Structure formats: C-alpha cells, structure tokens
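Quick one, tokens below:
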C-alpha cells in the first residue's frame, strides 16, 4: 500500500488572478452611505428644478454607480430625500437632504408639479429597465409602511407621486397592499392617502393614505382605468384599508362622496351590486332546484337584500334569471314552450312578491324579452309568458301597454311588438270598456 506524498504542490509566484467583475461587485461591502455621497456629487452640480439636467445627471451617474445594488438607496434619496433606516426615520449620520427629491416640490402637493419629478423617474427607468422591479416590489412598499411617521407635507407629496407612478404604468397597484397593514389601518392612515389632497377634514387618522393616490390617478384617467389597475394589483376590496369598525359600504360611500370623488363611490356600489346579483341568482337557482317552498324562497331573498341592498328593477331581473336557470331544459323541442309556461306559473308567486311598482313590472317584461331573444327556443312563447304573468298579478295591463308603446328593449323589438299586438289590443279594449262602465 503506497503512502501519500507530503511533497508540496508547485504554485505560481507573483501572478495576480483577476476576478470577474460580477464577483467583485457581489463580494463588495454594502455601503449605501458611500453611494449616497457619490450620487450627491452628481446632483449638486445642477439646479434642482432643471428636470432635464437632473435626468441627464442621473443617467450619467448610472454608468459609474451600481444602481442595481443600491436601488433601494437610490429611490429613498429621490422619494424621501435621504437614506431611511428601519422605523422610517432618516439615517442619523449628519448627512444633508438630497439636492434633488420630490420633497422640493411645492406645497400643498400639486399633480402638475409632481409630474415633473415622476417624468424624471420614468426616463431613468426607461434607461435602466432593471430599476422598475425593485421600485415596485421593494422601495415603494417599504416607504409606504413608514408613511404614518412622516409629516403631512412629506406624506402628501409621496402619495401623489405614487398615484402618478401607477397611473402612468411605471409601477402596478400591487404596492398599495402595504397600506392594509394593521399599524396603518388601525390608525386610519390607509384610506386618507388613497383619496385626499389637500388634507382631509376627518379627525380620525385612519383615513389618511387611500385618498391622495386616487385623486392623483383620477386627475388624468377614468375610474374604469383605475378599476383595472386595482384588479391587476390584486386589490379586491377597498374596505381592507379602512379601520375594522368602519368596514361597511355605507361609510365607504359617504367618505368618497364627501371627498368629492363620487366616481369611486359609484364604482364600488356597482361592483357590490354585481356581486350581490350573482349571489341571489345562484342561491335562487339552488332553492328552486331543491323545490323549496315559496315562503322560504321569498324569505331567503329578503334576507340577502338586508345584507346587500339592490334597486327593485335590478332585483326583479335577478329573480327572473335565477328562476330560469333552475329549469331543466333537457326535454323535447316541441315541449319546450309548454315547460316554460308551466314553470313560470309555478314561480309566479315569487315574482309577484317583488313586483311592487309599474317601473318594476316593465323591468320584468324587459327581462323576459331579453331572455326570449337570447334563447330562440322559447321566442314564440313570449306573448303566452306575458299572459301567465298578467294572470298571476306579476304585471299589470298598464305595464304591458306602456312596454309596447315605448318601454321595450332593442333586442328583437319588432318581432316581440308584433307578437304581442293581439294581447295589447285586448287589454286596451278591456280598459276602455271598464272606463265606460
């Protein structure tokens, strides 16, 4: 068995092995203060309100400074005026505030003024595309969680800037999820930032951060655009930004209306109504499928309305959709019309319980019209359906006559008007004879 040799292996003397550039950067000490001081030297040479010159200086600095490694420090300097330590206060090393930051914008915060600062960020990110991800996923969420520690001046300018960054597509609304953190929500900070500048008149600080961002966003774009951004940012419910004791639709509606942003209130109301309609249609379908009693069905619908109110005209359309969805249409083609009439007669007491005004009755007729237009198998049964609804007191003769004269929907209008001519004529003659008596 051979013994291992203890002889030293030969080595190169006086040869310097050059490490890869990326490895050197990765092993380098993380020194944000040094980065800050070097960046200040670039920014100090130009006027802080010469935005074109500032943009050029930042792009130039990116060629010599490691923007990717110090992305958080870069955005803290531009958005907060200096390096931020855990807790939200500035790093206490005696350094002055940045020669350029959004804090130098005019106060009270102005969308038009802060657009200049956002434009600088936009051009910088277009030049160094790798900065977009750290801004959206790290810097903005980090700064937003400290917004309760800032002065109203800092808070308003930063919130407007966030609104503009989202509206211009530089970042997504995902960063707003930070505002749902407990330490912001319980004091009411979140909802204020999302709506308001100038500052709100509310004394409760829990409504501070939701408002400014929305105002800045809606300064140029529509509510539909904002709704799409919120959806893409996975913001499912605005109530999560409100204090727990104020998480109801009425408070949210009143809040946005008082802050002169009615489009947000209208959008939220419509969205909640759409969810309520889906719930009612689904539950009504299940109840009818399981052949629950009429009283149980009516009671269930009314309990749902207490939770999520709906306009009467919207409700009657939901009831019709739910009832029709519960019918098993798998029968012979020549029996479809008879099946539809029998089922409508069976469900009529439910419809009659909520047909409480001429406007609702016309809405019900229109719901039947659109349904028959969409399902051509029962188009010919439209007039007989109206007769069944009339005989069961779901609709009145006046509602049918009004619908025929000027209340019909455009879907298949000519066909349905012609199909109901005989019925309308009969009702008109009946009404005239009653008047004569």
């Amino acid at each position: 068995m051979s013994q291992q040799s203890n002889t030293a292996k030969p080595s190169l003397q006086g040869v310097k092995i050059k490490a890869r550039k990326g490895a050197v950067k990765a092993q380098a000490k993380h020194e944000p203060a040094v980065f800050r001081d070097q960046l200040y030297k670039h920014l100090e040479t130009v006027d802080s309100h010469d935005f074109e010159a500032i943009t050029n200086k930042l792009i130039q600095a990116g060629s010599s400074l490691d923007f990717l490694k110090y992305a958080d420090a870069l955005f803290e300097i531009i958005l907060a005026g200096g390096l931020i330590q855990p807790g939200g206060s500035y790093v206490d090393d005696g350094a002055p505030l940045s020669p350029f930051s959004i804090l130098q914008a005019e106060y009270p915060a102005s969308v038009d003024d802060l657009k200049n600062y956002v434009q600088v960020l936009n051009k910088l990110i277009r030049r160094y595309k790798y900065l977009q991800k750290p801004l959206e996923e790290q810097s903005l969420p980090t700064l937003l969680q400290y917004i309760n520690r800032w002065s109203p001046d800092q808070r308003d300018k930063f919130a407007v800037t966030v609104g503009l960054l989202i509206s211009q597509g530089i970042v997504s609304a995902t960063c707003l999820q930070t505002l749902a953190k407990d330490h912001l929500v319980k004091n009411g900070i979140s909802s204020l930032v999302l709506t308001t500048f100038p500052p709100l008149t509310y004394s409760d600080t829990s409504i501070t951060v939701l408002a400014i961002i929305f105002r800045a966003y809606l300064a140029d774009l529509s509510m539909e655009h904002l709704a799409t951004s919120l959806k893409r940012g996975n913001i499912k419910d605005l109530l999560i930004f409100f204090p727990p004791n104020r998480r109801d639709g009425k408070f949210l509606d009143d809040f946005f209306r008082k802050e002169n942003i009615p489009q947000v209130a209208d959008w939220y109301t419509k969205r909640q109504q759409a969810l309520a309609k889906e719930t009612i249609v689904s539950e009504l379908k299940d109840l009818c499928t399981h052949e629950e009693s009429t009283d149980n069905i009516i009671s269930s619908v009314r309990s749902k309305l207490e939770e999520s109110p709906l306009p009467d005209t919207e409700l009657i359309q939901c009831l019709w959709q739910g009832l029709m969805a519960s019918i098993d249409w798998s029968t012979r083609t020549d029996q479809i019309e008879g099946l539809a009439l029998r089922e409508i007669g069976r469900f009529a007491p439910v419809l009659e319980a909520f047909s409480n005004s001429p406007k609702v009755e016309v809405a019900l007729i229109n719901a039947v019209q659109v349904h028959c237009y969409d399902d051509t198998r029962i188009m010919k049964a439209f007039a007989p359906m109206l007769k069944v609804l009339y005989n069961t007191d779901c609709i009145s003769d006046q509602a049918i006559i009004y619908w025929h004269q000027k209340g019909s929907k455009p879907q298949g209008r000519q066909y349905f008007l012609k199909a109901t001519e005989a019925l309308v004529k009969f009702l008109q003659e009946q009404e005239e004879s009653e008047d004569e008596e």
